[in-house]
User: What shape does this take?
Amino acid sequence: MAAQAGRAFDSEAVRESLRQLHRTGLYADAQAQTMAVPGGVRLDFVVRRNFYVNQVRIEGLPPRRAPGQGVALAALRLKLGVAFREKDVEEGLKRLMDVLREDGFYQAQLARELVPHPETRQMDIVMRVTPGRRAKQGVITVHNQTEFNDEELRKRSRLKPGRPVTLR
Assistant: This one.
């Protein structure tokens, strides 16, 4: 049973009231605060309403050199309309950094900006990417000890031409 005005203070009823508030999905945080008053105890529920993910943008991806906007946005996994959670943004940043590293941007730097819209309870999220230089591979030397001849091995390796490949 939830806490009710005029009844004796019951900590289990307060816990149940907090559970009910959280279950609504409307609040990012809910706390119970008590204060002694003449003739009893005053119980206040202090809540912080949720914001919801609105616009998610990524700025600073170099054109034709990095993962596309779609891949980068998919890595964030921040869906429009879901409750905004700081933890989800931090996890998304880690996944975006992984995508950038997979594409050779090992020195990329990420920054985020949160733009709340209190009147609509929406949160815009802007990710700023400073990619840095892309890592390049140097000369690859292969000691061919397979049944394939050197030319067949070059074809199977799918290395891009333009870089010297030495087979020994």
